[in-house]
Amino acid sequence: MKPVYVTLICICFTLFSGCRKKDDAAAPSSGRKEMVAGTWKQKDLVIAVSVKLGGQNIPAGTSMMVLAPMLGPGGALITCTKTNTYTFSSDNKMKVSGCTELLFPVTGNEGTWSLDIYDAVLLLKSAEGKPDPHWIDELTSNSLKISITAVIPNVATVPLTLILEKT
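Given the sequence above, the corresponding structure tokens read:
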């Protein structure tokens, strides 16, 4: 065999064997799971979009704690969440101390958690395994903001942002 052919065969073998996908390689961690793990306390619950309430324009970012007294019995569901704490353990168990009827009616007070869709979604699951996904709007080492769609009885279905602070 001519040396040129041997060289070409060696180059082709190297290229094709080097391009093979490794099945046993784990996906790299984004580090977000480690950031979410821990105990968080509720800092605020704000309206995610501007709304009109009783003829008044309410801008996005307005605290629901301020608006709760104007919402009748539905407002009590909001104020009940004010002191909630959320624990996301490193073994993917989740527990909420406080009221969950408004913010997490599917998950309830305990279940599991994981990150989904490129670590952009906090996927909660109830103890029965029912999924309850929420977009992560912001995540830092001490702040977590997640999207919630809440049904406030006799008022409306409202897009909210739950703002948590790491304890």
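The beta strands are 38-47, 51-53, 56-58, 85-88, 93-97, 110-116, 121-126, 131-139, 143-152, 156-166. Try to locate this feature in the token string yourself.
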